[in-house]
Amino acid sequence: MAKGAALPHTIQHPARLVPLAFLLAVLAGTGLLMLPVSRAGEGAAPFLTALFTATAAVCVTGLIVVDTPTYWSGFGQVVILVLFQVGGLGIMTGATLLGLLVTRRLRLGARLVAQAETRSLEIGDVGAVLRWVLLVTVVVELAIAATLALRLRYGHGEPWGDAAWNGLFHAVSAFTNAGFSTYSDGLMGFATDPLVLGPIMAAVVVGAIGFPVLQDLRRAPRRPGRWSLHTKITLLGTGLLLPGGLLAVLAYEWGNPGTLGPLDPAGKVLGAAFHSVMTRSGGLNSVDLGKMRPETLTVSYVLMMIGGGSAGTAGGIKVTTFLVLGFVVWAEIRGEPDVCAFGRRISREVQRQALTVVLLAVGLVAVATLLLLSVSDFALEQVLFETVSAFATVGLSTGITASLPPSGQFILVVLMFVGRVGTVTVATGMALRSRQRPYRYPEERPIVG
To answer: pLDDT band for position 445 (50/70/90)?
Structure first.
C-alpha cells in the first residue's frame, strides 16, 4: 500500500476496527506480561498465563489463573492496570480522543469508529461525548482513589505508598468494571467496611450505567421529560435489578455460615448490596463465592448476563436489551401492534437487534459451557457460572479458573474476547448495514408455541 493511502473500506468499517484494536491490545499486553520483569518470581510467565491475564484485563473481565499481587511484579501490575484502563475506555475511543486533543478535528471515519463504542446518537456529538468520557473518567477515578487511599491508611494502617497504590488500582478497576484486585482474597478483608466497599460500589455503578445516561443527567438533572428513552430504560432497569439482587442475596445467604452468616445485620446488608452491584460487571468479591448456595448462584447468572448500561464499562447483553425484549413480550401479551415505553414507540429494527444479541449470547454461553464440561470434571453450576462471568466480562468466579486445563482456559479467553467486542461488533454491524429491499416476499404465519 502506498504511503498515506487509506485503509481498505472493509478494514475501516467500525465493526471490524473495534475487535482488531482490542486484539492488538491483547497481543501487546501478552508480550509485556511475558517479560521477566513482569513476574515477581524467577523466569517469565508462560504464554497462556500472560494471554489469559492480558485478555481478562483488556476485556475488563477480571478472571485470573494466577494470584495478581504475588505472581506479578510491580511492573506487571502496572501493565495490567494500563490494560484494563485502556480496555474500559475503549481502544478506539481513546485513540480518537488523542486525535481530537491534538488536531481539534475529526474525520468522518474516526467519528464512526468512536460512535461504534460510545453509541452516541448523533455523529456530530462524538467530540463532546469523548471530552465528557475523559472528564468523568479522570474525576471519578481520582476521587475514588483518594477516598480509598485515606481509608486504607487511617482505617487499616497501610503505609502511604501501599495505600495510594491499592486505592488507585481498585478505583480504576471498579470504574472500568475490570474486577482485578491487589489483594489475594479480593475484598474479603473489608467485608464489613462501608468506607471501602461503598466508594467501590459507587465507581462500579457510575462506570456501568453508561456515558449517554450520565450525559443526559448532566444536561437535565431535574427534567426527566428531556431524557432520552435509552436513559429512562437504563435507569428503570438499574433501579429494579440492584435492589432486587440485594433482596435475593439476603434471602438465600442470610444464614449461610460460609458467606453472610457470621456477619451482623448491617454487614449482611452491605455484603448483599456489594454482590448485587458486582454481578452487574464489577467482578470484585467481599465473600467466598465458592460457598454460596445454588440459588444465589442462579440469581447471579441472571444479573451477570443482563449486565449494565450500554456505552459504559459494563458487560452482559445490557439492561436496555433485556428491557426492550420485556416490552416486546408485554406488548404481545396485551395484543398491541406497537411496542412502546415511556410514551415512545420502539422501532422494529431495535427489537430485532435486541433479539439477535440475546440469542447469540445464549448460544455462545451454551456452547462454551458444553465444551468446558467436556474438558473438566467440575459441576454444571460451577462451569456455567464461569462461562457467564467470562462472556458478560464480570470476573466473578467460584474458584475453578486456575484449575481448568489449558484447553478450558483458552475457551474462556475466546469467550472473554467475544463477550467484550462481539456484541459491539454485531450491534454496530447491524445498525450500519441496515437497508430496505426493493421487494417483499409473500407473508405466511408458522405456528409458534
So the answer is: confident
Non-local (6+) Cβ contacts of 213 within 8 A are 230, 231, 234, 235, 309, 312
Question: Nearest-CA neighbor of 22 among 446, 414, 428, 439?
Answer: 414
224 backbone dihedrals φ, ψ, rounded to 5°: -55, -25
Q: End-to-end alpha-carbon separation of the chain, Å?
A: 55
- Each residue's pLDDT tens digit, 393-417: 999 999 999 999 999 999 999 999 9
Predicted pLDDT at 379: 93
In a domain, 8, yes or no: no
In a domain, 4, yes or no: no
CA angle 311, 425, 18 (to 5 degrees): 80
d(CA 139, CA 146): 11
What single string gives the DSSP state of each residue in 202-264? HHHHHHHH-HHHHHHHHH-TT-GGGS-HHHHHHHHHHHHHHHHHHHHHHHHHTT-TTTTTTS-
Residue whose grid cell is 447468572: 301
Share of the chain above pLDDT 70, in %: 84
Q: Is residue 166 situated within a structural domain?
A: yes
Query: What domain range includes position 165?
Result: 13-430
Q: How many domains is the chain built from? A: 1
Strand intervals (E) in 156-212: none
Q: Do residues 215 and 312 lie in contact, with contact meaning Cβ atoms separated by under 8 Å?
A: no
> Is the full-model pTM beyond 0.90?
no
User: What is d(CA 189, CA 20) in angstroms, rounded to the nearest whole number?
Assistant: 39
CB 398 within 8 Å of CB 386: yes
Q: CB of 85 within 8 A of CB of 198?
A: no
Q: Positive or negative, the Cα torsion across 287, 400, 84, 10?
A: negative
327 part of a folded domain: yes
HSE-CB for 252 with a 13 A CA cutoff: 19
State the average pLDDT over residues 381-396.
94
